[in-house]
Design a protein that fits this description.
The chain is mostly helical and 420 residues long. The chain contains 25 helices and 2 strands. InterPro entries: ARM_TT21_4th (IPR056836), TPR-like_helical_dom_sf (IPR011990), TPR_rpt (IPR019734).
Length: 420
């Protein structure tokens, strides 16, 4: 055995002191080819300092061997020595056999530094030189996938598949394409790929995308089957709970939906979306105090979530808890954090608590947004009528009848106001 082989054997056995001794002997005695293999092995095993020393030893002997520079640059990047890595890579000329490899290494380096435009340019340069090189196609596909530029990613994944690759670098390409289509919102194409994936390649992430895609295609029973299976194997996969619960809602399995949202909150107690969904289902089940609890909990986590605010406000209006509704919405009105529905809800509760003058301000503020909403216009008509503001009631009632010409009660009331 060479000293390099003895060192690797010692590392395999956890004999670090022996490995250290064999490493020194290897640098002094082993052939250059053996040292090159050793450097690659050490890099793969994560012994970066030793890999670096080995590459540097070889570069001392072969200062013009560019393939050694790319190997060393890989190690330096992993060690965080970015400037040093760039220094070696920049010396590789475009005419060098190692130039293509240097472009790929620089692309990785720039991604590490979040210099994405520079990384993309190096990959495209490499593609121009070798458009049929699979590792370059894969690099471009993964780059665009991670940048969420899915249309471009799909193009390069498909090129790899057309070359006969179903997997590359232990990545299932069909899965990648299916997920990319799903993430891009092209669910019809996504499902065609996701359903092809062999069960052995159905990772939790891919299973989630499959269930999510079924949900988006309104195939709720299939979504339930896939997402149930996902949670049964990985109950910490928090993203699955909202979609599984909503699929239960869509199939009118409300008790199962509520249990699912509650299970999701046990996994992710800071997910305001789950609190909102749980509250909405609790209302459907007639469990108003529970719904109030969930909406309030969600707002403690995210007070600026206007959907949660309106869900709780609508609940207060429904159960005639007008004081609580006014207290809830007062902060948002004062801070001008306004969804038009807030004006309407405040107006309703102020009317119910006989704060007529203030209520009228909010009715009129809401009217700007709801002139074509028949429900709103009917309520506004009744507000004016009940408070003896006949002129305003007549104007609003006339506009309402244009929206609802079959409402005989309001037609009669408007006629009375007109003096007919």
């Amino acid at each position: 055995m060479t000293y390099s082989e003895k060192m690797l054997a010692a590392l395999d056995k956890g004999q670090l002191e022996d490995a250290k001794k064999m490493f020194g002997l290897a640098l002094r005695n082993d052939s250059d080819d053996m040292l090159f293999s050793l450097a690659e092995e050490l890099y793969g095993l994560g012994f970066l300092k030793q890999a670096q020393r080995t590459y540097l030893k070889l570069i001392e002997r072969y200062p013009d061997a560019d393939e050694l520079k790319t190997g060393l640059a890989d190690v330096l990047i992993d060690e965080g020595e970015i400037d040093a890595a760039l220094g070696y890579l920049s010396t590789i000329e475009a005419t060098s056999p190692a130039y293509l490899e240097s472009l790929l290494v620089m692309a990785d380096l720039y991604q590490t530094e979040e210099l994405y435009e520079a990384s993309e340019q190096k990959l495209l340069n490499a593609y121009q030189i070798a458009p049929n090189e699979e590792v370059i196609l894969f690099g471009l596909a993964e780059f665009y996938f991670n940048m969420r530029r899915f249309k471009e990613a799909i193009k390069y994944y498909k090129e790899l598949i057309l070359m006969g690759n179903k997997t590359f670098s232990r990545v299932d390409l069909v899965s990648r394409i299916g997920v990319a289509y799903a993430q891009a919102g092209n669910f019809d194409n996504a499902i065609g790929y996701l359903e092809q994936i062999h069960e052995s390649n159905l990772t939790p992430e891919v299973n989630f995308q499959l269930g999510f895609t079924y949900f988006q295609l309104k195939e709720y029973d299939k979504a339930i089957t896939v997402l149930q299976k996902l949670i049964s194997t990985d109950d910490q996969f928090a993203s699955a709970y909202p979609y599984l619960g909503q699929a239960y809602v869509e199939t009118n399995q409300l008790a199962d939906a509520l249990r699912t949202f509650q299970s999701g909150l046990a996994v992710d107690e800071f997910n305001e979306t789950l609190y909102r969904l749980a509250g909405q289902v609790a209302i459907k089940l007639g469990q108003m105090p529970l719904a109030e609890h969930y909406f309030q909990q969600g707002l403690q986590i995210e007070p600026s979530d206007m959907e949660l605010v309106l869900n709780l406000s609508n609940l207060y209006v429904q159960v005639h808890n007008d004081e609580a509704n006014i207290a809830l919405l007062s902060t948002y009105v004062q801070n001008d954090e306004i969804d038009p529905q807030i004006y309407w809800n405040v107006a309703k509760s102020l009317t119910q608590t006989n704060q007529v003058k203030l209520a009228q301000q909010y009715w009129e503020s809401a009217q700007v947004f709801f002139n074509d909403n028949s429900d709103f216009m009917r309520e506004l008509f009744l507000f004016y009528q009940n408070n003896g503001q006949n002129e305003q009631a007549l104007a609003i009632g006339t506009e309402y009848i244009k929206l609802q010409p079959d409402d005989l009660d309001i037609i009669e009331a408007v006629a009375n106001l007109s003096g007919y």
